[in-house]
Amino acid sequence: MVKNNDILIVEDDIALITALNNKFSESGFTVYKAYDGEEGLNIAYEKHPDILLLDILIPKLDGITLLSKLREDEWGSKVPVVIMSNLSFSEYEINACNKYKVKKYLTKADWDINKIEEEVEKYILKA
């Protein structure tokens, strides 16, 4: 699989998605953005990004449901996913992350934008 440094960010917080878009664009990524789960799933299937940053609480199709549908697809079963959420890391999220092979779970209150970039680059290089 050829790596193009394409990233899909599925997030409904406009300020956050704008900041992430700017950071990753400046670092040479092609950034695809989706503001709800349905749009995110459609873009993922169409563009096949190298990694997804995925919020859990998003409109139309929540992040866990999006992830479960994504993992049914041959390409989607292998793409690295990093979850970003304001939710605490409950048993539900732990089980979903393990079941759907999430690479990293980031609580939004605990990270900075440079740490997110480090995580993304780490998983793109490993894939």
From TrEMBL:
Keyword set includes Ligase: no
**Any idea where the Response regulatory domain is?**
6-123
InterPro entries linked to this entry:
Bact_response_regulator, CheY-like_superfamily, Sig_transdc_resp-reg_receiver
What is the protein named?
Response regulatory domain-containing protein
- What PROSITE patterns does the record tag this protein with? RESPONSE_REGULATORY
Positions carrying 4-aspartylphosphate are 55
Q: Which SUPFAM superfamilies match?
A: CheY-like
Task: Give the UniProt keywords, A-Z.
Answer: Phosphoprotein
Instruction: Report any one BP term from Gene Ontology.
Output: phosphorelay signal transduction system
Q: Which Pfam families match?
A: Response_reg
Q: Where are the transmembrane segments?
A: none
Kindly indicate whether the keyword Nucleus belongs to this entry.
Answer: no
